[in-house]
Specification:
seven-stranded parallel beta sheet; 8 helices
Length: 272
């Protein structure tokens, strides 16, 4: 449940195909206000020029856009100083250099600076965001971040998989830290989705095909971002006010399957 006139910060918007955008629009449809963030002016321009061709000029103008590079503490502090009281935050921010941290047949890379950068952006930044967001949650609130398979290694996902495992550990630590402030911290771990972020993952098609073998429920890599957005909004809202420190899997059930599905267990073709 999203209360009318409640305010949420949606961080890391790239385009209208993203989970973050779907969640933000759902919040707005339920009566909440959304403050959108992009890393900088260039990323905002990319969003408006390339990422949201389906939006009218009026819709673009109505979006409350702010800038925030989560690796710069002063920018995170300034962002939440500008928001006033808020009810929650969606942290939808991750990065790993696709040339050095993704796609290799082994985890090892000589590019340790790239590894550290990816960890900072993808995992440690959640703690920075929470540090400055929580004081604006005067009546308690919720922080949700987005993960993907932080518990099992997938080929070629490499350091991003490590970062997601770290992110889920950060979620637990922050949930313990901020329970006294009545602030909940959770993650949503989605199945593979065809988004801009996914396009940088080498062999993404392999992940999609893997889901066909391990997901007991049908999984649509395009349409099911709306299902994931619904789970995000659930965790942000009041119906989840006693849930914290959790990773909620919205992946068709693939995360708990041992081995691959037998033919008789697979969903029928065309089912949604």
């Amino acid at each position: 449940m999203i209360a009318k006139s409640s305010t949420y910060v949606v961080m890391g918007i790239l385009n209208t195909d993203s989970i973050a955008y779907a969640a933000g629009r759902l919040i707005e449809s339920l009566g909440g206000k959304v403050i959108w963030t992009a890393q900088n002016e260039r990323m905002k321009k990319i969003f408006f020029d390339r990422g949201c061709k389906d939006l009218s000029d009026e819709q673009k103008a109505a979006m409350d856009f702010r800038y925030c590079d989560v690796t710069v503490q002063e920018e995170v502090e300034a962002l939440f100083a500008s928001t006033g009281p808020i009810d929650g935050v969606l942290h939808s921010i991750a990065y790993a250099n696709p040339k050095t941290c993704l796609g290799g047949e082994v985890l090892y890379t000589e590019a340790t600076e790239d590894v550290l950068q990816g960890f900072h952006i993808s995992a440690a930044s959640l703690a920075t965001v929470a540090n400055y967001a929580v004081p604006q949650m005067k009546e308690g609130g919720s922080i949700v971040t987005l993960s993907f398979e932080g518990q099992r290694p997938f080929p070629f996902y490499n350091w991003m998989g490590v970062n997601k495992a770290a992110l889920e550990a950060v979620v637990k630590a922050l949930a313990r830290n901020y329970g006294k402030d009545r602030v909940r911290v959770n993650a949503v771990s989605a199945g593979p989705l065809t988004t801009k972020a996914a396009s940088s993952i080498p062999y993404f098609e392999h992940l999609s095909k893997t889901w066909e073998q391990i997901s007991p429920l049908p999984w649509d890599t395009v349409k099911d971002k709306e299902e994931v957005a619904g789970a995000v909004v659930f965790l942000l809202g009041a119906f989840a006010k006693k849930i914290t420190g959790q990773t909620l899997f919205v992946d068709g059930g693939a995360h708990f399957i041992g081995g691959t599905l037998m033919d008789f267990e697979k969903p029928a073709a065309g089912e949604a």
